[in-house]
Write a structure and sequence with these properties.
This protein is mainly alpha-helical and 293 residues long. It has 13 helices and no strands.
Length: 293
Amino acid sequence: MSTGTDPLAPLAALSGVPEAVAEVRKAVDRLYGHRVMRRRAAEVTSEAAIRGARASAALDGADWSLEEIRRRSDFGGDPEARTVGGALRISADAGQLLGVWRHSPLQVLARLHLLAAGDADPAAGRPRREGEPAGPLFPVEIAAAEGFERKVQEVELPPAPPADEAAARLDQLAQLLAARADGAASGTPALVVAAVVHGELLALRPFGAHNGVVARAAQRIVLIAEGLDPKAICPAEVGLAELGTAAYREALAGYLGGTEEGMARWIGHCGEALRLGVRESTAVCEAMQRGMV
């Protein structure tokens, strides 16, 4: 039972959001009811992790095929290989961080950044300090169709806030999540909470680099923690990559604008990405059922 008011609750009532929440819930429930999940759920989780990691790395500019990722054993070479390796490490560990997330989300974010950056990076696992810039969210703009790059350039994202402001807002976010874990604030749908965590981390860019992959991993952890996707079989990163960088930037610009319309558009975009992730894992289940995997 809720013992307080959830500050995120008004977002759940924005235009189009209840419909997005209901569609996501229906899609996820259908996937969890698939007959393959009765016997091979762990395999589906494993496959979702690698597909989600591949997609998250692609959004950070390292667009490798699944075959290449499965074939490789060394991810410590060039920058693209390190990006893919970081995304894989995060996917492998995200589910193990759930217990810590419930009482110390900041500790988990530091761990996610350490996994993304690697031990060799002296800034790994620590937020940026005063005067340190935040790296770009979209290091490589990939043209998916004619006019794509022009469209991307038309969507201007504001700069990241200074390090002290980012730290203060990150603390507020952590307090909000801790209140939910304690039952002091609850009732807001998981999709909305996950979208806010994802959007806020992209807005704050608390680290000097790798903020995108960390934000997407945090969204995954929220979906697990909030009970929407407890087995982590719905790789929303796949959907984000499929929808494309331009749409991702445009939806994020809506979140950063802070208007009701912009916030609803961002939550809807996260919902659509999650449904596409469900479709990806449903295809995996179908392939397993036919004996192809």
